[in-house]
Amino acid sequence: MSKWVVLDIEGTLSATDQVLVVLYDYARPRLGPWIEQHGDDPVVADAVRQIKELSGHDDVVKALHDWMDADQKVTPLKTLQGLIWQQGYAQGDLVAEFFPDVVPALRKWHDDGVKLAIFSSGSVAGQIAFFQHTTDGDLTPLLEHHFDTVNAGPKREAASYHKIAETLQSDDITFYSDVPAELHAAQEAGWKTVGVARAGEPYGNADFTPHPTVWELS
């Protein structure tokens, strides 16, 4: 086992529907009110500026909804979603659920001295809230680092994995993901890779060649 294991979330640790249905449906009606109520927050203001630049128009909420409909991993959208989800978890409106094999595997790796980190398109704030409020309790003590498209970069570019390796100060890293393109990028950066083929998930029947493939974590 590598010194570090870095894990994707959606489709790897948790069902895609947990994000695309439960979390998206929770965030969608709250985006407009959140922007109105937190407009003075520098993080929100910067996200709004980015949304206008990227969309080319001033209808921020429409742009956000369009991106959600297309499941586009746009950074300012992920930032705002993460803030909303963070509050939702804190209020008890949301509880994260994992595939049955995930929490036992995370605990075993942690107990065996493997260092664990997350690399997800969801914001770091959203990731932390996700792992703090789960059906298995607070799992954040198991994790050493969280990476997103802001502090690492796009998940399908090798440069992002080089950047993470620099932060972890290690070249002994294994990446688990259900998306072959992400595995290709990690492998290009010199990482070990493992494809996670979950039955019923969007990439469950994908071609993971040349990456070793598992159907559950262990």
TrEMBL record:
Top-level taxon of the source organism: Bacteria
Keyword Transport in annotation: no
Pfam families named among the record's database cross-references: Hydrolase
Documented EC number(s): 3.1.3.77
Metabolic or biological pathway: Amino-acid biosynthesis; L-methionine biosynthesis via salvage pathway; L-methionine from S-methyl-5-thio-alpha-D-ribose 1-phosphate: step 4/6; Amino-acid biosynthesis; L-methionine biosynthesis via salvage pathway; L-methionine from S-methyl-5-thio-alpha-D-ribose 1-phosphate: step 3/6
Bilayer-spanning residue ranges: none
Biological role: Bifunctional enzyme that catalyzes the enolization of 2,3-diketo-5-methylthiopentyl-1-phosphate (DK-MTP-1-P) into the intermediate 2-hydroxy-3-keto-5-methylthiopentenyl-1-phosphate (HK-MTPenyl-1-P), which is then dephosphorylated to form the acireductone 1,2-dihydroxy-3-keto-5-methylthiopentene (DHK-MTPene).
Record note on quaternary structure: Monomer.
PANTHER family: ENOLASE-PHOSPHATASE E1 (PTHR20371:SF1)
Protein's name according to its UniProt entry: Enolase-phosphatase E1
Source organism (scientific name): Lentzea miocenica
The encoding gene: mtnC
